[in-house]
Amino acid sequence: MARFYPKLLIILAGLFLAGYIFTTTQQAHSYAGWMLMAFFGLVALAFRQYEVLKGYAFTITIFAAVSLAMYYPQYFVYAGDFKLSKLIVPLMQLLMFGMGTALSLQDFSRVLKMPKGVLVGIACQFSIMPFVGWTLTKVFSFPPEIAAGVILIGSCPSGLASNVMSYLAKANLALSVTLTAVATLMAPLMTPLLMKLLAGQYVSIDFWSMVWDITKIIILPIGAGLIFHHFLRDKFKMLDTPMPIISMASIALIITIITAAGRNDLLVVGPLLILAALIHNLSGYFLGYWSARVVRMSEQDCRTVALEVGLQNGGLASSLALSMGKLATVGLASAVFAPIMNITGSSLALWWRSKTDRQLPSENT
Predict the structure, then answer these.
(1) Cβ contact 276:143 at 8 Å
(2) First CA to last CA across the chain, in angstroms?
(3) Residue partners of 202: CB distance under 8 A and separation at least 6
(4) What is the C-alpha separation between 94 and 96, in angstroms, rounded?
(5) How many angstroms separate the CA atoms of 19 and 134, rounded?
(6) Using CA atoms, how far apart are residues 59 and 53, in angstroms rounded to an integer?
(7) Dihedral, CA of residue 274, residue 275, residue 278 and residue 282, to nearest 10
(8) What is the distance of C-alpha 10 from the center of its chain?
(9) What is the pLDDT of residues 302-351, one digit of tens each?
(10) CA-based angle 220:332:198, to the nearest 5?
């Protein structure tokens, strides 16, 4: 029965996909969205039954949520008289608090123990991605506010996903956590500076307002999380299990709300934005890896730098777009980039992991 269960899920997913194709050809779009959501949901459940595919389950779930937002945006804009976009900043603050509870002062002290890795990683993080994003806006000639969103996602620090991917890739997890922590603390200065420099031609950037927005969205919650970790975490061990689930649900809801808000613009620039996201993301992995390789860092450290550079904090980009009052346009890039980053990051991490596993027997003989 255990072996049949994932096969049953795949069969049901295939039936819902066929139903989606049929309802679409019949112009029955009011049903098509539910069919597509069910297809992705069942695929995600099936993937969770296979160790090699488990890493993709969350991303497939995101696609299920986005499918509903694209077909039925009215459900994700307002809940009664409450505008759902108001949840984005509190959800992001919750995510950052969770990140803070997982950090300790030791994570920051590692800067002194591996200064080369931190210096290379931070330099790549705040140079490669914003300038690749800026270049893509010139190549694809996006509308000004969409272009600003591409630069914004590139100017944000790495997020928690990079730590998960580094673990999966058997990279240097300690360096990954340290790079994420340091880049996040530098974001209140570096992100507004890069936006002023590169995106000021597209939208008006209030430097000090953005500094404060980033401070209240990530720095204050992380600080609160660090205090919680130091004084109270041992008394609240029960939070260790639900926090990752809460974090994933928060990310999914943020992406869904942004997709619903920017649905009309996404229908116009969607294919080009997807292509830009792939180029941006893969450029980060490639240039990050080889930048570390050029300065003769270890294979583990090169993988870490690649993932830290290629994976941005999409939630922060979304929150800043909301603070600018341009969630449906400037925030659109983060909604598109986030699922793509998860797919490519998972694929690269699992490939590196399998490569390492194959090498272990020969290394032990």
Answers:
(1) no
(2) 40
(3) 137, 144, 145, 147, 148, 151
(4) 5
(5) 41
(6) 11
(7) -160
(8) 27
(9) 999 999 999 998 889 989 998 998 988 898 888 888 888 888 888 888 88
(10) 75
